[in-house]
Structures are given as C-alpha cells and as structure tokens.
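hey can u check if this looks right to u? its 690 residues, i copy pasted from the old doc so theres a chance i mangled smth
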Amino acid sequence: MPTLTARTKPRTRRSMELLAERPDGLHFSELWQLVLAELPLADEDAERLKSGDTKGENAWKWQTSDLVMAGWLRKNNGFWRITALGREALREHPDATDFYDGARAAYNYWQTHRHGFAYAQKLVGAIPAERWLDLDTLAAETRLDRRPLAHWLWGARPKGAQWVHDAQATVAPEVWADDTERAEFFAELDDWERYGEEPRPIDVAELQTLLTQEDTKAPHAPSAWLLRGVYANDALGWFAEGFCQLAADRLGYVDGPTSAEELRLRVEEGYRHLPTSQREELTATFQTFLNRMHPGDLVCTLNEGAFYLGTITGPAEYGNDGTPPLLQRDVDWMDVAIAQADLPEEVQGRLASQHDIVDMTSLMDVLTGLTPIAHPDDDSRAEQAEAEGPSRSGRELRLPDPTLAEELLVTADWLTEVRDLLQDRQQVIFYGPPGTGKTYLAQHIAEHLAGDPRAVKLVQFHPSYAYEDFFEGFRPAVRSEDGTGTLTFALRPGPFRKLVDLAEEDPSTPYFLIIDEINRANLAKVFGELYFVLEYRNRPVDLQYSGEFHLPRNVFVIGTMNTADRSIALVDAAMRRRFAFVALHPDEEPTDGMLARWIEQRTKDGQITPAEDVAALHQELNRRIEDKDFRIGPSYLMRPSVYAAGGLKRLWRTAILPLLEEHHYGDDSVNVEARYGLAALRRAVSGGGS
C-alpha cells in the first residue's frame, strides 16, 4: 500500500493545477475541498489529529510548504496563489512524483543552508524603504546560490523582500515573473517621489551598521560574566595588561556587535571541522562576547585556584599582536584574589560549568559582596558588602517564621519544623492516606512562606506525565517569520522551567513548586537529569534539549503522596534521598485532633450544629482500619454539609464506605457495612459495643 507521502503527492500537484485555473487564487480551505472532491482520503488518512485536521490534510499542508520554498506558491493570510514560476514547474514536471521531488529539492537546500537563509532574512528585513539591495551581493554575503535564494524570496516574501533587485534594479529573471507579477511587485514598493530621489543601492556594511544600531537600542541591565582563559595560565596576562580575551582564529575579522545570524554563518563556515554541538556552543560564546557583554558589566575568572573580579571598560576588538586572532575587551581588574575554597557555594557551583562564558548575573549581589567594590550606579550595595564582609554562603535566603498555625489547625511546633525542613533540605513530601489535608497544607504553607501567591505553582502528576510536560520539550508551532506558515516544532518550557526562570530573575523571593500526587508518575522519566540538581543546587547539569542548567537556591519543592494509592516504599531510593518526608496520618500530629478543633471552631462561629460526636465516630472508624495507610483523613468530615440533616449518612454511603469496599475487595471475611457502617460505630461510641 502506498505511504501517506505517496498518496499526498498527487493532491499537491492537483492543488497547483487548480490554482493555475484561478489567477486570483483561493483560500486554502476551499482549495482543500476541491482536491478532496477529486482525490478522496484513504481510510487510514481520515484519522483526526489534535489540531482538528485529518492526517491527509496535515500531510498536504506540509508538502505545500516545499512549494513556497521553491517560489512556486504564495501564501498570504490563508490565501494561496500560484506564481508564474509555479506554472513553469507544472510544465516541467508533469509527473506528480517529479513535481514533488523538485519542490523537495528546494526545501532540502533551505534545510542544508538554513543559517544562510536566516542571515539573509535578517539583512533583508533591515533594508530602509528608500534603498535597495543587489541580489548578487546578498547571495555572496550569505554564501547562498543566487537561484534558490531568488526563488525563496519570491515565494516566502520575508519582510523587505521587495527591496532585493537584480543588478538592473528589476525583478530577478530566475523567478519567471509575468507582467501581472511584475506590476504587483513594483506596486508593493513605496512611491519613490516622496523620498525626493530614486531609491539608491545599499551595501552589506551599511545594513550591518543598521542592525547593530537596532541592537544597541535595547535596554541593558548590569550583568556579570565568568570567562575562561584561552590557554593554561594565560589569565596572568589579563591582569597585567587589563583585558580579557577570547580565541577567534577562524571567525574572520568582525568590527563590533554582529548579528547572531551572521555569527552563526561565520562559525558554520570557519569551524565546519567541529561537531554541530560545538559549533552551536561557539556561536553562543561569540554572541555573548560581542553583543551581550557591555562596558560596566562585572567580569570574573579563575586562575591557578584564585578567583578575580573586574569591570569591563571597553568594546570588543582584536588584539594588536594576537596570534591566532584574539578578541578582547578592556577590563579594570581589582587587585584582590579570593581562594576558590573560600567562595560562596553558589559561585563554586558555577565554576564547574564547561562553557567558555557563563552568565553570572543572577549572582550579582553575591559577587559584589565578595569584595569592597562598587558596581556602577550602586554605591550603596558596595558599602553594605564592605560592612558585612564576605560570606561562604553568600546572602542566604531565609524563610520567614510561620504564623498561620491556628488558621491551619496545626501546632506551631509542627509548622516550624516544616519550615526548617524546607530551609535545610529544600524539598519536602507530605505523605499519608486520603483526606489528611496534604495538598491544602502544601498550598497554604507555600503561599505564606513565599509572601506572594504568584510565586507558587501547582502541578499534578499522572501516569502519562513526562519530562517534556514537566520541564521542557518540543511542541508543534507554526513558522510565521519566513511567510510559509509551515508547521514545525519549537522548544517550549514546562511549568517547572517557567518557575525556575522567574526565580532566577528574583533571587530574594522564595518560589515554590507543589507537585500533587507525586507518586502517580514515573518519577525517573519525569525528572530525568533534574535528579542531580535537586541534590546539588547551583551545580550545572547538561539538559536533554537546552544545554547547561542549575537550580537556584530560592526554588523549593513540596510534593504530596497518597499512601493508599501507592506505598512510599515504591518510590525509588534516589528520590527518597532528595526529599524530606513528613507523615500526615489521622492519629498522628498534626492531623490528630484536627477534626475536633475544626468542629469546635465552626460550632462557636455558628456555622454548624453537630447532632452527635462526629470526631469520636471518626476515631472509632480509624481504630477499626488495621492498615494505617488506608485510614480516613479528617477532611472528609470538615464540610458544613456533613452536619446538615442527612449529611453524615450521605457522606458515609457515597464516600467512606466505597473507599473501604475497595480496600477489602476480594476479602470475603470482612463485612464492610457491619464493620464500618454508621450504625456499628454509633453503638461503639455510645458504649453499646461493636
């Protein structure tokens, strides 16, 4: 049986034939219906996806994206039109497979040279309205062949594409534009007369200057950076001559800030002998040194076991005698060296990073507190640091004293112990049978200690929960920047990653992640390499998708575990070692007596009028349940509706007895109603026996 791709090929070509019959184009939904009328879906292609599309329609949309890359098809807000180049392709490729292969070749070229196309898009988007760029100049700068570049510009039409002309300031002949398309193309250009002169050509150097100017308009907050030396012990020269350096022997000479797209293309060309992962790392390193670092930023380095701090004072430039070429920035180094062993734990953790440049901005307060140095525009911070002196633990975040024991109906000692466990271990799990208030306590304690409910996030685990749901993973996304509307995949943060990012930006505030039903998921699958950072805060670990990661010290985790659902013994040893476990059982502190306190409080407030001693019934019920992990928590009975007429009997019939029937499922020796029913419990409480 033909594959889905094979079945889609004739639909793709027929779409273009239908568009060729309609010079004004069609909306893609109307076009799809016309195609379906002639080429219906096979049964296996009719399955609906989460997007609502069938498999067949989804595959068709994907294949038409190749047509855009080839310049054969124009897409604009859901409205599709065939180009003159597309009509020529229909004549040249009468067979559906050949037609598909021709479009696929355009896509493959784009995929192979995607960095060049990204750079081209950046340059084209910067062309001022009164200027135009020569197509050959753009092709040479981006290392792209002229023909596929012209086709891509014609089909995708990125911002500024109308300002890319042939050397004669007209439409490139490679796109086979007919008279209608030429008229439309030039109609897109602004009226030349209002500029007072005919548009003038622009060169790449001018475009790069414009891009740099745009980048420098972005606000820059003071930052801090850790730099590695280029060679062993070379940092000694940094301090003597007042600079820091970065090897750039194959980058080619750059003059100041350079767009990320140009840097990526230069690295792809100059360092092609390196693996892809190393080229990506180099691109990020050059991007940081050239564009993200600014005069006034803190810079630090490690040399022969000593830690040094300084302030960047100059722009990026090449050293006069650098062999191989070395990028450098002037630095005002402090005449103070700190032994590595005396550094705060947070700083020592970052030193374990394998990157050449590490962003240390989140530790700005810790770094400025190491020595009596005034960071630009913040003299008061330096004065405070000088008064306090250096500290091995930096500025440790202290959780406040809890004051809501009465509100939560727990003892102050228990609540203080939970706070102390969080302060010391940073990860705690509340475990116990259902109804013991695990989630309720976790939420209220977290919000109280954080001081802001926005610093608390709750997630609930379930059997299908995975790392990509919890932390980060690739998710479907529509590519809009190139004008194709192609469905692609983008790396999306999960709830934990989002919380960590917020915590990084706000180190003085404690952030809490509550994981409800933590034992219902495959924990090794969900946490992955995050197991490491749970135990070693601020020590970096390489993530599956996005490089190095550390867990800030102001992130706390509270999990809840229903022991009736799964025993604590089944949690793997690695997880048990990383969490402190706090039991919540009906007959143990703080849950013991909670129901009686709640009834007393609500009775005084006039919210309920108990007709019998419900707390005593609850105690007798749990006395009869031998397995403590299946005893019933007080929260089942902490509802005003229970104390209304018939409320207690209804709760017993619909909530408590079904739980106990499940517990004794298959055990014919136990009569659940006789043992746990209200009538039996009332007789026992009143002294009438069981």
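The first strand starts at residue 26 and ends at 27.
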